[in-house]
Description:
By secondary structure, the chain is mostly beta strands. The protein has one domain (31-344): TolB, C-terminal domain (Neuraminidase, 6 Propeller). 0% of the residues lie in helices and 48% in strands. It has no helices and 27 strands. The strands form six sheets. Strands 8-9-10-11-12-13-14 form a seven-stranded antiparallel sheet, with no helix packed on it. It has a four-stranded antiparallel sheet with strand order 3-2-1-27, with no helix packed on it. Strands 4-5-6-7 form a four-stranded antiparallel sheet, with no helix packed on it. The chain is globular and about 50 Å long. The chain starts with 30 loop residues before the first strand and ends with a strand.
Amino acid sequence: MRLRTLVPLITAIAVGLTAATSSAVIVPRQTVAYVKYTKATTSQVWATGPGAAAVKLGTGYGPVVSPYGDLVAYAAGTGPSARLVVAPATGGAARTLAKRVVGVPAWSPDQQHLVVAVGPEIGKQTLVEVSVADGTQRRLATGYFSGASYAPDGGAIAYGRTAKADQQGVAGDVFVVPSSGGGAGAPRNVTGDGRSVSPLWGREGIVLSHLSAPKRKEDYPKANLQLVQADGTGRRTLTKLKVPYLLYGLTAVAFSADGRRLLAEYGGQDYSEAWTYDFTTGNARDLTGKADGVIGFGISADGATVLAGTGGYDPQAKSDVVTYSFAGQHRKTLIRNASWASWAVGI
């Protein structure tokens, strides 16, 4: 059985003009990074922006655009040889920051650091915070991880972890640890029920997937969204969907800048579908209103636009990178024959 659990992509955030990574002024750049597949099924990372020609950044997968839009982090290589690299969004030499990376990295809001799991594909991994400037790694935790996300102010990191390999993504708890910009401190539990995974931190708090046991043998646990504060208080249920056999349910993907609109993904066996949640109304819905294989990648800073892909759960299928309104209307094609996209600066 194939379960696709998305590691959250970075939400486009409206930011100031001066980057903390440099004394120079950085003008936020509207950037979309994406993956194209060759006939030999090799994945290539590309980037573009309004009025700019698309540039190939390198061979790899899982591109994530930095908050200022001037850098793209991605995994170069595959399996045990995968490296975390960062390249200019306009093209140029990529720098290796970490080796043996697992999954997709997450940027800090000031883009000085990335958090990512490193280690074997099968076996205990280490969650590290990596300096973009020099690749210095700060060890955060060991185990098996289900996503990591910075607080909106960058002062702490939330992550999902379990101690058992066979429970990765289907059991675990959420922890919070201070980031490099947030001071010293050990990780602390936010949840303790063993059924909380895949955290995403927004201005409303930390959204996680809360798991319930399946009612049939050989079925997946069922995931609905809950909200909790970083100190473990205020926990409440957001969705109460009845998830069918062999489907998993909802995982948070990206927040709007004000934290009021959320993009999520409804996954399961050979299935993935973009959903939205509105904190103002409490409504959760399939983005397009039908199971048509539209996958969610990101949401604009103002929450009005969703970055998505067509073609279903298989990234090598014929697919396009598109946008929809938050209501699932006004589809626009951005890049044809491309998938696995990320963006920045509220395009």
